[in-house]
Write a structure and sequence with these properties.
The chain has about 140 residues and is mainly beta. It has helices spanning about 45-50, 130-135; strands at about 35-40, 65-70, 80-85, 85-90, 95-100, 105-115, 120-125. This is PIHD3 protein.
């Protein structure tokens, strides 16, 4: 049994609206940049040679998500970036990208760097999954 809100004019509760929908702008004419999502894991010799940990080559065992976004003819100062736990929102004068991330991330723990010679923005975010404290202890 779900309790309805006090205000009968509301169409839906705030819990029903997905995170990041406030950024969705279908009327924006800017094009979407080319991007890649890569996964990175921390391995040591005990993982590679001895196979002593539970890690394998799947994305379920990766601790970091690396997002590479091609931004041709863009200066670093033109980039507006907002990262939340499930959504990445990037805006430049010519391009925009609203990306719903495949895994939940820790939006406070990450690194961003702009490679001007490659015209690429590289964002590294720590993946935040349940039970990672057990799996990667």
């Amino acid at each position: 049994l779900k309790v309805k809100s006090e205000n009968r004019k509301t169409i839906w509760d705030t819990e029903e609206v997905p995170e990041g929908s406030e950024f969705d702008d279908t009327q924006d004419p800017r094009e979407e940049p080319e991007y890649q999502i890569l996964f990175k894991q921390c391995v040591g010799t005990e993982d590679v040679f001895l196979g002593m940990s539970r890690k394998d080559h799947s994305t379920a065992c990766c601790e970091y998500m690396v997002i590479k976004i091609k931004l041709p003819e863009t200066k670093c100062s033109d980039i507006v970036l907002d990262i939340q736990d499930e959504v990445l929102d990037l805006r430049t004068p010519k391009m925009k990208l609203l990306l719903h991330l495949p895994y939940r991330v820790n939006s406070k723990d990450g690194k961003v760097r702009f490679l001007s010679e490659e015209e690429t923005l590289e964002i590294t975010l720590r993946v935040s999954r349940m039970f990672d404290f057990i799996n990667f202890a």
